[in-house]
């Protein structure tokens, strides 16, 4: 008998848990969330995860045999400690080992971009539009820029745990300095905050990315159009490297910036200019699951 799928999405401010039935179109048995309290430190966060699992047990009457977890960073395969986490209290900590000890069950970890890619592959846009896809690249373009790889319905983490991390490839050596220490990487070039900064620089005005996109669509603001043109141009160059190396069947664009329609038209044209092929057969997809992707992908880790 197949076991129910238990997933935890560990976010910066909240922790969400889900229990799914183990089938192709799974029904949700239980879904709960509590604050992470990351500002209170690592021990508090792990305690909150354990607390949420107990709440899920009580609400469902079930017990997990395995748990999948989406994390805001990467588990280093060598040191078995967390790295690159924006919830900094997790960095350097043996999260997987600690949670397995606390819960008494195996725990599978993957970063949030990988879980986004897996969720859209198993339950979302890829399943709906490209059900035969074997290789999927999931992109999150919002406050930061990240990516995840799914091959044959399984997350590919890579030898160092950094597979899919295209956000810190250098795109413009003369660009702005990123917190990663490099100038002009993808994230500092066209993440949401980076594009807002660019708009302010050329226009003298401070607007949100949503407002900039709306002004571009209206055709009434040349600075907004220049900003969106920068996005589509740089996106085409950056994603072409991924396509040349990985040649995925589908790319799913998540995050706030991923909602901008021009990426699926002008961005696709820019991709065609830069890949090592005379056509683009890679499908660009809008995500279907929205904010649910993280927790669904976490459960998918133990599918």
Written account of the structure:
The protein is an alpha/beta fold. 37% of the residues lie in helices and 19% in strands. It has a 5-stranded mixed β-sheet, with helices on both faces. The longest helix has 25 residues, at 222-246.
Summary?
Helix content is 37%, strand content 19%. The chain is of the alpha/beta class.
| Radius of gyration over all CA atoms, rounded | 20 Å
- Assembly form of the protein: single chain
**Secondary structural class:** alpha/beta
Shape type:
globular
Into which percent range does the helicity of residues fall?
A: 25-40%
Work out the number of β strands.
12
Terminal Cα span: 13 Å
Low-confidence stretches: none
Q: Specify the biggest β-sheet.
A: 5 strands, mixed
Order of helices and strands, N to C?
EEEHEEEHEHHEEEHHHHEHEH
Mean model confidence by pLDDT: 95
State the strand order across the main sheet: 3-2-1-4-7
**Number of helices, where a helix is a run of at least 4 consecutive DSSP H or I residues:** 10
Strand content: 15-25%
């Amino acid at each position: 008998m197949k076991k129910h799928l238990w997933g935890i999405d560990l976010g910066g401010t909240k922790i969400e848990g889900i229990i799914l039935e183990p089938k192709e179109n799974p029904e949700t048995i239980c879904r709960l969330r509590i604050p992470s309290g990351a500002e209170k430190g690592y021990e508090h966060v792990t305690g909150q995860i354990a607390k949420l699992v107990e709440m899920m047990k009580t609400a469902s009457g079930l017990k997990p045999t395995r748990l999948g977890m989406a994390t805001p960073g990467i588990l280093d395969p060598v040191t078995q400690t967390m790295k690159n986490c924006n919830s900094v209290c997790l960095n350097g900590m043996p999260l997987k080992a600690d949670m397995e000890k606390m819960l008494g069950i195996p725990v599978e970890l993957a970063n949030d971009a990988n879980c986004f890619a897996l969720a859209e592959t198993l339950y979302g846009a890829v399943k709906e539009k490209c059900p035969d896809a074997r290789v999927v690249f999931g992109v999150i373009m919002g406050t930061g820029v990240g990516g995840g790889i799914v091959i044959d319905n399984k997350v590919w983490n890579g030898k160092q745990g950094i597979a899919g991390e295209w956000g810190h490839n250098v795109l413009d050596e003369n660009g702005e300095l990123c917190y990663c220490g490099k100038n002009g990487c993808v994230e500092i070039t066209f993440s949401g905050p980076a594009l807002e900064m660019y708009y302010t620089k050329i226009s003298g005005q401070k607007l949100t990315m949503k407002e900039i996109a709306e002004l571009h669509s209206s055709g009434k603001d040349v600075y907004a159009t220049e900003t969106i043109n920068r996005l589509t141009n740089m996106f085409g160059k950056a994603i072409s490297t991924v396509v040349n190396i990985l040649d995925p069947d589908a790319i799913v664009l998540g995050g706030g910036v991923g909602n901008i329609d021009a990426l699926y038209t002008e961005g696709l044209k820019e991709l065609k200019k830069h890949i090592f092929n005379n056509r683009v057969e890679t499908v660009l997809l809008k995500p279907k699951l929205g904010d649910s992707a993280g927790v669904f992908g976490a459960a998918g880790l133990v599918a």
